[in-house]
Amino acid sequence: MADDAMLKFVGTGQVYPEKRAAQLRAEDFREIANRYAVPDAEQQAGRCSQCGVPYCSVHCPLHNHIPDWLRLTAEGRLREAYALSNSTSTMPEICGRICPQDRLCEGNCVIEFSGHGAVTIGSVEKFITDTAWEQGWVEPVHVGRAKGQSVGVIGAGPAGLAAAEYLREMGYDVHVYDRHDRSGGLLTYGIPGFKLEKHVVQRRVERLEEAGIVFHRGFEVGRDATLGELRERHDTILIATGVYKARAIKAPGVGAAGVVEALDYLTASNRKGFGDAVPEFDDGTLDARGKHVVVVGGGDTAMDCVRTAVRQGAASVKCLYRRDRANMPGSQREVANAEEEGVEFVWLSAPEAFDGSEKVTGVRATRMRLGAPDASGRRAPELDPGAGFQLPADLVIKALGFEPEDLPKLFNADGLGVTRWGTVRTDGKTMMTSLDGVFAAGDIVRGASLVVWAIRDGRDVAAHMHAWMRAHADASAQAA
Fold it and tell me: Which stretches of 120-240 are assigned E, i.e. beta strand?
């Protein structure tokens, strides 16, 4: 039966779940596509070639057992498929929604290389775990025997939540400290609902709370307690704050009203989705309705901003990016979704100045051209002299990426080592910082990266923290 269920890629075409019409989906913040019906999921999973070297798994940061749970799905053994998917990831349905599969698993699928179109791995992953939630297969966290030791996790984003879950399973008392009033970090406040509906994140957080993990929300390290004080409360500390400081644009007029940061804009939109009072949205500052919007940047955050502006009823939305389409860092699928929804991309362009004395009225831009490859291998953009132009703008959103905050200063922890980029310096083998018993993981170590890498780091650092605490417990027992 198993052989009959698989290797269908020659006769069965690649079919993603149907997206809602662009005009309809631009009217709300619901996810743009429904999940597969059961027969469709089984059929698409059955396209997997079960190749000898599963490049999909190799290129997945979590090394998920993708061919195995595709086979189980094709055979109708969904509960087993879920168990296997869940064994390597604490958030498979979230990765299924927001991972750039076109750059990771699906982009490296063997049948993609053969011209048959990749297996729709992310959509099947989403289907498996959403079905598991509906059927009650998602079990509570299995809390291990109490160790008598506690962990403090700073940051309730994907790295912190993943580590907290694994450490709780090992039997540690876990406390999570986060500056926001809801857990989830960028999953909650940075990513729009049309990519990740918020109940999907919150049910994961509720599961952790039910397991006895204590969440301290609205808690700022440095204001409510120093890092040193948290070290006194807990046996180990994990720093998993992510990176939130926006990269700056150096151009005349950048300080004008109406030139805003991407994260401020996205957070305001997500808060309105929760029903919160958001004064800067309500007074129009962070609301794109009726405005000519220009978003500067070409990554996934820029895509989130342009597509949010469409849904808020902007008069026009343009994305200004200094490279061409082939060299942009954001997902090509997101670019296609944005274009379907009416976003105009202005490639090979960069802002030169922002017009308007009291409030921004336009963007003066210059054309760019691609020169020699830079250190990353991408062709570096350079000015194309004499090729300037202007764009009208009532709202300019800066989406050039994120950098680390000055954590030693913020946490009142001078001994915390950082790199020249401001990321927290860790030992490559143990993931420990310069402070004994203080570990770090996720974007605060890597720099701005993918959610799936944060989950991977959370999984890895939990194992290192466990080994360190076990060694210290053994040493204390021998000393006694």
Answer: 150-154, 173-178, 214-217, 236-239
Cross-sheet strand order for the sheet of 236-239: 214-217, 173-178, 150-154, 236-239, 438-440
Q: And the tokens for 400?
A: 């050039």
CB 237 within 8 A of CB 151: yes
Three-state secondary structure string covering 414-474: CCCCECCCCCECCCCCCCECCCCCEEECCHHHHCCCCHHHHHHHHHHHHHHHHHHHHHHHH
pLDDT in tens, 105-156: 999 999 999 899 999 999 999 999 999 999 999 999 999 999 999 999 999 9
- Between CA 366 and CA 64 the distance in angstroms is 44
Closest to 76 measured CA to CA, from 103, 129, 133, 38: 38
Q: What gap in Å lies between CA 262 and CA 319, rounded to an integer?
A: 13
For residue 321, give the DSSP letter.
-
The answer to whether 122 touches 181, Cβ cutoff 8 Å, is no
- The residue type found at 290 is G
Q: Buried b vs exposed e over 130-149: b needs ≥16 C-beta within 10 Å?
A: bbbbeeebeeebeeeeebeb
